[in-house]
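input
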Amino acid sequence: MLYFSRWKTILIWLTVLIGVVYAAPNVLPRNVTDAMPDFWPKQSVTLGLDLQGGSYILLQIDRESLIQERQQAVQDEVRQLLRNERIGYSAISANERIVTVRLRDPAQAEAARTALQPLTQSISSGLLSGGTVSEVALAEPQSGVLTAALTDEGVQYRISTAVTQSIEVVRRRVDELGTTEPVIQRQGEDRIMVQVPGLGDPQRLKELLNQTAKLTFQLVDQSENAEQVARGGRVPPGSQLLYTTDTPPQPILVRNQVMVSGENLTDAQAGFDPQTNEPVVNIRFDLARGAAFRPGDPDECRQSLCHRPRRQGPFGTGDPHRNPRGPGADLRLLHRPERQ
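output
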């Protein structure tokens, strides 16, 4: 028969008692643990998805839609760049990641290549890697025909960026559920795994994550008076009539062409204007799209630039200025709180 000395027996029972005290919050109701003294252990063990159940969902980037959006953006830029240089073209089409332009005068091929060079500017592949990626490659398969093709590395960069940005969006949305320690991880190149322990309604999680939010920067069309158009006037071709969230709402004509989309953002920080002390959001774009916000006259561009969050959000005005710290571009968005 085993024999333990008195001090060993006391030590064993003391260890058991401490274990029971620390384990009690896991079996006691929450109102009981809240009524205990502050020195009493109240933290319980967080059970994972395998022990307490919950919701699991696997998200995947829509690769084809992303490629189509980038292809449409490149097509719009090609059309705009050629118009700016007064280079005529008879046809422009997009198919299988390639935008094809047929020039009216083949002798202008070299001038057209020069005009389209901004499309080939490298975009930053990340602050840590410090590398750059060429998203578009120009070619002249035959006389008078130019092509702008999306590169594989450019598409992969856009997918990787979309996954990284989506993880942060998913994390903020899941936090709204008030759950404890959700697991949000990247899987492979284009997937995101989401585990929410304790959430017994997977449909609620699915509906929350399926909400689409997209930020675009578009120019304001000043060729017509927005108030006259709102009273029944004709909307200019290539534009649409929208309203701000002011009280009362103010009409505004916005061009359909997207100058820069949210995927071109590399950094966004809240701050205050050093001169007026008003709250602002300082946004930095990548190398290629940053050139769109380097105007010769900032005052003119401030009047004709707006950002549009596509989730019933407000319009905002932008103050673009040159970035002294790098080849990208900074955009300062001014936020004016509503006055009661």
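quick obs: The chain has ten helices and 17 strands.
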